[in-house]
Amino acid sequence: MELTKEAIQEVGEMKRKHYAMVINGERVESASGDTLETFDPAKGETIATVAKANEEDTEKAVQAARQAFDHGKWRKYPVGKRARVMNQIASIMRSRFKELVEMEVLNSGKSVGAATVQINQAIEDFEFYAGAIVGHRGVVNNMPYGFFNYTHKEPVGVCAQIIPWNYPMMMAAWKIAPAIAAGCSVVIKPASLTPITAILINEICHEAGVPEGVVNTVPGSGAVVGDYLVQHEDINKVAFTGSTPTGKDIMEKASQTLKRITLELGGKSPNIVFEDADMEAAVPGSLFGIFFNTGQSCEARSRMFVHESIYDEFMEQFVEKTKQLKSGDPFDKGTHLGSIISQEQLNVIDSYVQSAIADGATVLTGGKQMYPEGFENGYWYEPTVITDVTPDMKAVREEIFGPVVVVEKFSDEKDVIKRANDTKYGLGSSIWTTNQGRATRVAHQIQAGIVMVNSPFSAFPGTPFGGYKESGFGRELSVETLDLYMEDKSVLSYYGPKPLNPFGV
């Protein structure tokens, strides 16, 4: 079925029960006929089936992207024309905003408030890169007399982009927007749990005027589709957001063909509350830092360090506000926490909490599965605060990826910096203090790609997002991202009055 404007508008007015993959500008069923069931995790109910790609389907998508890049017109468009198409993508997304939010909530179980913010940012990503690419250019370098050198930025080629389940549409936008702005073609592999909005954003790209084959979406398993893309000789770059173990596997496999790689991986981010923190800002900000998106965020500030002189006062307020957080109907604007993505992930979260208890930790609130009225068959976990922890506990060292925070006291600045950095991860971090000198001093010593000072927010279009150490490498969401999708070609010419004869023969 061709993705005409009329067809997209027609299906946009109703929820589909089945979603095909998108290859070369067409809706395509799996060559095997296989499908995935996709769920509403808030209720534990099936909402639709999705075509499940295999290696044959993935090969078709790669070849469509390769053909579009090597022989198509997108990479040859003037940047101003690409920018106009990208702004049109954003415009269509705004016109379908309610539908996109609804589908994100249904497929991920997140609260409508969280989904609204994330779809807004997805739209802004396309607008940001539409502007950024227009001014992104090479340079003219100083050379000896008679020589002229300039650099020319060219798209890197065909890119495989592997999307996680925690921010399905926003992460798709983070990857698609800079890649197509740069002139690349892409093959998207959305998470098997949350493929719907990635398919929708692909369809919108075509409606807006992105040529056939430039954006392709193939839902399927990581073991089949992901591995095939990572090892394919016609894929020039891989961008992956997900777990650190999977990132290591991708890096190893991609090394066989020396692909460019961007990895945005796990985290165990510290949240440091100094004795001079503004309590009215630090308590709700710290609450948001761990419980936003139900704690299912790579940069969630899941290790909290509170100065001993304010520990009791801070924790009393923090626990009380945690108990006030509302879980339940994701479409209720008063809901703070949505559901956990799956029963499997809920079991993982609970296993970490139980291990902490077994190791002698104390649960101040939460610590178990919950069953909100009307959503008893969904996957829900109470927002959980754990104290009396030690650095060797699994719950302190490993990424839980749920609404669980571990809390420790600290006594001085040097001590807390050392403890904050005592992790294999280095993605996000928060600092709460009214002393600007301390804020700057500590920010420069924290081993993390993102430092939030007196603010719970980690990302806006234009701010680099990425990590140190085993949290990966490369930056997304910023102007710097464009360079990850481009080659710098150096063009050196001679214009001197006499022919060059280096050998003198």
By CATH, the topology of the largest domain is Aldehyde Dehydrogenase, Chain A, domain 1
Q: Strand percentage, roughly? A: 15-25%
Number of strand segments: 25
Q: Specify the CATH homologous superfamily of the largest domain.
A: Aldehyde Dehydrogenase, Chain A, domain 1
Q: How many discrete structural domains? A: 2
Helix content: 25-40%
Q: Tally the helices: what do you get?
A: 16
Shape: globular
Which architecture of the largest domain would the CATH scheme give at its second level? 3-Layer(aba) Sandwich
What characterizes the major β-sheet?
Answer: 7 strands, mixed
Mean pLDDT over the full residue set:
96
Low-confidence stretches are 1-14
Radius of gyration: 24 Å
Going across the major beta sheet, what is the strand order? 15-18-19-14-13-21-22
- CATH class category of the largest domain: Alpha Beta
Alpha-beta content class: alpha/beta
Please report the distance between the alpha carbons of the first and last residues: 66 Å
Domain Aldehyde dehydrogenase: 29-491
Family: Belongs to the aldehyde dehydrogenase family.
GO molecular function, one term: oxidoreductase activity, acting on the aldehyde or oxo group of donors, NAD or NADP as acceptor
Protein name: Betaine-aldehyde dehydrogenase
